[in-house]
Design goal:
By secondary structure, the chain is an alpha/beta fold. The chain folds into two domains: 1-79, no CATH class; 82-318, Alpha-Beta Barrel (TIM Barrel), CATH 3.20.20. Helix content is 43%, strand content 13%. An eight-stranded mixed sheet has the order 5-4-3-2-1-6-7-8, with helices on both faces. Strand 4, helix 7 and strand 5 form a beta-alpha-beta unit. Helix 4 (151-159) runs parallel beside helix 6 (182-190). It is globular, with a radius of gyration of 20 Å. The chain starts with a helix and ends in a 25-residue tail after the last helix.
Length: 333
């Protein structure tokens, strides 16, 4: 019997991917190289609009072809493809801000560390060897640009075809107050077709990094405001919810679709689960894929299938995000 709900959800998720990617590219196109692109000129607005329509149409078409080719190729080979919308890769727990609504719980860390580049490289190469495709790999912190050793890591995954063909973009998520080191800026400018920087908007505080990105020919996106997506995660206490409520929460949660988190070689379904488990706020429920010790291709694929079929995870009983979404203000320290 055909499961129409499953088919509907897959179609919706596919459009979410295309929407988010196209929206990001739109802002990148608007901001790239020129902070005063239009100068109140109507012809400039019209020219931009035409270019944006053409660009977005081509982008969505190419993305559709890519997804279809992966699905058809996989099915012909007799296996179900593993495709991710996005994943957050934590490269550091260090941060120069202390945002109270941080879903990664960074302010609660006592000892924050930059992750070893060789370890990060091993984890990501294993991940890309196993999965069929991922749209966006988010480079996260803390504040990712506080890890000053990322240039060789970026160059490896953007230049080696066996890896670069497996993802659309490496996207830095930065608070906009830390300027990347020169080597990292150079690599980001060199691989502008594969690397993008998304900057929180803190006004004048963000101007220096924008100038550096423009100077080095780096594609970037700047947010509309500094707290447009920050929500209250709750008090970290167990709620003892029933299974029906947990199922509903998980089915409506954006984190499981777009925020799968790779922390210390373990892939969790969300950053709240990853960091909360590491910090000891939640019991370890085993709902992750360990890329740090397991190099068996078949076993890892089975682990991915298993974790992606879960109806909810233990951390859901500690989280309030899918139930109520009051905005909280980001720190301006």
């Amino acid at each position: 019997m055909v499961n129409f709900i499953t088919i509907r959800n897959k179609i919706i998720n596919t459009f979410i991917v295309f929407n988010s990617l196209t929206d990001a590219r739109k802002y990148a196109y608007l901001n790239f190289k020129n902070k005063k692109r239009f100068k109140n000129n109507k012809m400039d607005y019209m020219s931009y609009g035409i270019k944006l329509i053409v660009f977005s149409t081509v982008f969505i078409f190419k993305s559709t072809i890519k997804y279809l080719s992966i699905y058809i190729s996989s099915l012909m080979k007799g296996y179900k493809p593993i495709i991710f919308n996005s994943m957050e890769m934590v490269v550091t727990e260090k941060c120069n801000l202390l945002c109270p609504g941080c879903i990664s719980l960074i302010p609660l860390y006592k000892d924050r560390e930059n992750k070893d580049i060789d370890d990060l490289s091993n984890y990501l190469s294993t991940f890309l060897d196993v999965v069929d495709y991922i749209s966006i790999i988010k480079i996260m912190g803390g504040e990712p640009f506080l890890n000053r050793n990322l240039s060789s890591f970026l160059e490896k995954f953007c230049s080696e075809e066996r890896y670069s063909e497996k993802f659309n973009k490496l996207v830095f998520i930065t608070n906009g107050t830390v300027i990347p080191d020169k080597a990292t800026l150079n690599v980001m400018g060199l691989f502008k077709d594969k690397i993008e920087v998304r900057v929180s908007n803190y006004g004048k505080k963000s101007s220096k990094i924008i100038d550096s990105l423009i100077e080095n020919d780096v594609v970037y996106v700047i947010g509309k405001d500094s707290n447009s997506h920050w929500v209250d995660i709750g008090d970290l206490k167990r709620k003892n919810r029933d299974e029906l409520t947990l199922n509903k929460m998980f089915s409506e949660c954006e984190a499981k679709k777009n925020c799968n988190t790779l922390l210390d070689g373990k892939l969790y379904l969300c950053p709240f689960a990853a960091h909360g488990t590491k910090l000891g706020f939640f019991p370890d429920d085993g709902n992750f894929v360990d890329l740090s010790s397991n190099r068996n291709y078949k076993n890892l694929r089975e682990s991915f299938y298993k974790i992606r079929s879960l109806k909810y995870i233990g951390t859901c009983d500690y989280c309030d995000i899918p139930l109520s979404k009051p905005y909280v203000e980001e720190s301006h320290n």
